[in-house]
Design a protein that fits this description.
This protein has 298 residues and is α/β, with parallel strands linked by helices. 15% of the residues lie in helices and 26% in strands. It has a single domain, classed as Metallo-beta-lactamase, Chain A (4-Layer Sandwich). It is built from five helices and 18 strands. The strands form three sheets. An eight-stranded mixed sheet has the order 1-2-3-4-5-6-7-8, with helices on one face. A hairpin with a 4-residue loop joins β9 and β10. α4 packs antiparallel against α5. The two termini are 15 Å apart. The structure holds zinc ion. The site of zinc ion (ZN) has 8 residues, from loops. The site of zinc ion has 8 residues, from loops.
Length: 298
Amino acid sequence: MSNKPKNNVMPENWYDALPRAQYASLLKVESADPWFSVYQIRNNIFAIYEDKHFQEVISYLVIGSNKALLIDTGLGIGDIHKVVTSLYDGEITVAHTHTHFDHIGGDYSFKESYVLNNEIAFKRLRRGLDYEEVKSNVEDGCNSEPYPDGFDKENYCIKPANKIFTFEEGFTFDLGNMKLEVLETPGHSPDSVMFADHENKILFTGDTFYPATLYAHINHNDGSNSDFQRYHNTIKKIASAYCDYTLLTSHNEPLRCGIELIKVLKAFDEIASGSDKYILDENNLKKYQFEDFAIITS
Ligand SMILES: [Zn+2]
C-alpha cells in the first residue's frame, strides 16, 4: 500500500510518475480487460499491472507445464479472472504474498485461494473487507482513467474468497516444469511470504521489497500490523541468500536485481542502530529516504 495526503493513502500527483521507465523495455501483450496492462516478463511469467490506480499493484501469472499459479489477485476493480484465463486455459491456483486488500480483490472469482497459515490472513480472505475499510482507495483522484464499465465505486468492497487452503514455510507449488517454494517473510505484515523459483533464480517479493516506499508501520484494527524488528530479521534472512536472484515485486515496476536486497539490509541496519536521518512525514511517521526506496517506521 502507498502513502498519503488528503485521504491518508493517496500520494499527491501520483500519476506524474507514469509511465514508469522500465515498462518501455518490456513486452506488452493484449489484456482481456483494459483496466490491467499485461507485460510478458519471461516466456511463462506475466505481470498484470493496475497502472490506472495509484496503488499500481502488480499480480503475476506463472505458467508451468501442468498448471499455473496466480500470485495475488489485485484490487478487485477489473476482471482479473478474464485476463488470466485468456492467457492460459489450464488449471490456475491463486496464492498470496499477503492479504492486504490490494492483493486479494479478485479472489472471489476463483475456486480456491492459498495463503500462509495465519489466523488473521485466513479470516480476512474468508470475510473480505467492507466499503468503510477500502473507500479511501476510490476517492476522487485515485484513478487516472475511468473505472471499468460495471464497477460501482459507491459499493467498492473486497468480496470473500471461496475455498481457502493454507501453506507453511517450505511448501512448494509444483507447476510441472517449474516449482515455487514459500519463504515466510513477516514484517510488512504478519502473513507476508515470498515465492522462490530456485532453478531460474527468481524471487517474487510481494510488498516486502519494491522500488518505492516500504511500509514497516501499518496498523490494522484486526491485528495485522507491521513489525520493524521482524521486517529487519526477514531482510537479514533473505539478503545474502537471494542477492543473485531476479526480483519480481508487487508495486510500481516489476523487475529488480537481487543485489538491491543488500542495500535494503544496510538501510534496515542503519535504522535499527538509531539513525536520525529521517524526516517526519505528513502522518508524523519517520520516513528514511535511501537511493532507490524509502522506509517508513512508526
Ligand atoms: Zn500492496
